[in-house]
Amino acid sequence: MSTQETKPIRTDEIRRMLKKKRAKMKRLLSHCVHCSLCAESCFLYMAHDKDPQYMPSYKVLQSLGKLYRKRGKVDRPFLEHIKGIVWRNCVLCRRCYCPIGIDIPSMITFARTICRSQGVYPRVDESVSESWL
Ligand code: SF4
Ligand code: SF4
Description:
By secondary structure, the protein is mainly alpha-helical. It has helices spanning 3-6, 11-20, 22-31, 37-40, 43-47, 56-69, 76-88, 104-117, 124-127. It contains 9 helices and no strands.
């Protein structure tokens, strides 16, 4: 276990980051009408037999959406869970099209930034392990 993995999560820092982009991100999160159109343009969603876990909107709501709902009061297992969503389930290819202009990749990027700020990100050996396939 690395020293990063034993460090406490700095929720004050997460809260500060969330607050900085709050207006823009909240607006995007609240504008989604769950039409699923973005899903059709996500190759990961299509390649996984339309598994809802790979829907772009689902990935954002389950990562950034939850971070906002919890107001940044999260623990390491929660961030580890998000890590799986924003790295394994999205490659930031920017192919997802939203007719009302919701920028999914930028939101997933922001969720990654928050995870990374707390030392939560995929390691090289982890990215080739079974759990990431
Ligand atoms: S296309 Fe846009 S509005 Fe429709 S589900 Fe995706 S993000 Fe939400
Ligand atoms: S950026 Fe992520 S959610 Fe959008 S199409 Fe690519 S893999 Fe799918």
